[in-house]
Amino acid sequence: MENSKPFKLGIIGAGGIGSIHIRNSIESRNVELVGICELKKSQAEACINGQPIPIVESVGELIKFEPEGIIIASSTNSHGEVAKEIIEAEIPFLCEKPLASDLSQATQIANFANEKQIFGAMAFNRRYHQRYIEIRDAIQAGEIGTPETINIISRSANPPSAKFISTSGGLFGEKGSHFYDLIRWIFETNIHSVFACGDALFDPEFKAINQPDTAVVLMRLETGVLCSLNFSWRSGYGHDERLEISGSNGAIHSVKNSDAAYHGYAKGKFSQIEKFPNWNEIFRQTYRDELDFFISEARSNDRIKLPTLFDGVKAQKVADAITLSYLSKKPIDLKRQ
After folding, report:
1. Parallel, antiparallel or unpaired: strands 191-199 and 250-253
2. Collapsing DSSP states into helix, strand and coil, what is residue 249?
């Protein structure tokens, strides 16, 4: 019989993404939010609107509330140690990327969860956006023939601070990881090699920490498909995220409006009347769907939709290779890493 009781959930972190998970949990009839772990108590309090939800400062205190599952949305450099503590407590968890600060630790944690048979999943929420689901289905059905190229644009309307980027994985890890996973998921293959070039074109604080705010990445998939990714932390016209796949018999775009390609986004003759929707508007539903999938799969221990911890490791490996390419100015073969 299906478990009809609300899922007892704990959430670690009440920052940007953590606050989304907290609010979705409070609004869901399927969830009982038993506790929040956050060092900045006022930040967590701002998310709960006076509701009597305990706020604690350690993972151990959160575990005492006996959650059925935990979402890790704390600071990036804390993910590894937090995940280990949750695995040791034998609690299912969903982790925002990355799984750990470095690839070696992330691999160890994924193996540890596997050995302990603990359900762990990565929060690559773009897999649940309806348009990306449609694109994947079309590719798998052969609607455009044999895929040959994929082009991705991702430009952020609200850039993060250089301080945040210095510990979060940078442009290639913080922004890019979602797309490396999306590419692997759509094409059901791995990434063979990468080459990156970039610079701090508009933010001197990024320049000071040797982090690009703008970059172009080229990839070859193991199937031979060629990919280009155009990344920027700046957009003056809203969150810009577009994907185009070309194949032997056609092409498919993430933008449904066929006229969109003929509009410019600067001030002048070819400008749009309205800005693009913001990031939260585009992906709001994906976080809700992700929460529902986590509840279902954590209870059944039957993975259907959620990415594995090893998917997270593979995305992190790609991010590391791209960073190495950017620093060395050389192409990187992932099989040699």
Report:
1. unpaired
2. coil
Q: Could you identify the residue written with the tokens 């609010």? A: 23
pLDDT class of 167 with cuts at 50, 70, 90 = confident
- Cα separations (Å) of 146 from 134, 192, 226, 307? 17, 18, 12, 25
CA atoms within 13 A on the CB side of 217: 35
Phi, psi angles (nearest 5°) of residue 82: -65, -45
Band (pLDDT 50/70/90 cuts) for residue 169 is confident
How do residues 241-290 score in pLDDT, each as one tens digit?
999 999 999 999 886 544 443 344 455 554 444 566 677 788 999 999 99
User: Which of 226, 224, 252 lies closest to 136, judged by CA?
Assistant: 252
Report helix, strand and coil shares of the chain as percent, to nearest 5.
45, 20, 35
Cα distance between residue 143 and residue 235, in whole Å = 32
Look at the pTM and tell me if it is higher than 0.85: yes
At 320, list the tokens: 């590391």
Asked if residue 304 lies in contact with residue 297, where contact means CB atoms within 8 angstroms, the answer is: yes
For residue 50 the two structure tokens come to: 């006076």
Which residues is 12 bridged to in the sheet? 37, 72
pLDDT value at residue 260: 43
Output the 3-class SS for 190-233: CEEEEEEEEECCCCHHHHHCCCCCEEEEEEEECCCCEEEEEEEC
How many CA atoms does the CB half-sphere of 265 hold within 13 Å?
12
Beta bridge partners of 333: 193
DSSP designation for 50: T
